[in-house]
Amino acid sequence: MSLDLFLLLAAALFSTGLFGALTQQSIVMLMMGLELMVGGVILAAAAVWHHIAPASADGQVLVVLAVTVMAVEMAIGFAVVTALFRAREVEMTDMAAELRE
């Protein structure tokens, strides 16, 4: 596949995630939008790296590291959201903004 197709897919993922992050009020849906955006960026970076240096494994290691960091970040985010929901039953971003005591 060509670089153009991968970049088009990455742009579609990023724009779908941006739309989801800007339009949703649920914290979980907001985080899913952010996850899609980061996935689009990682896909674009991997495609460009493969296009520039296809024989080098440095890009693959960087992508695996980025996906690992993304997974850890989302796991911590979901743990915080779950704790927030259990403590105060907050599930919307508007309700979470009012917690500044």
Description:
8% of the residues are buried. The chain has helices at residues 3-23, 27-52, 58-88, 93-97. The protein is elongated, with a radius of gyration of 17 Å. The chain has 101 residues and is mainly α. The chain has 4 helices and no strands.
Query: What kind of sheet is the major sheet?
Result: none
The whole-angstrom Rg is 17 Å
Pattern of helices and strands: HHHH
The rough form would be described as elongated
Helix content: over 70%
DSSP strand tally: 0
Structural class label: mainly alpha
Q: Helix tally? A: 4
Q: Estimate the mean pLDDT confidence.
A: 85
Stretches where pLDDT falls below 50 for ≥5 residues? none
The rounded distance between the terminal residues' Cα atoms is: 53 Å
Q: Report the portion of residues in β strands.
A: under 5%
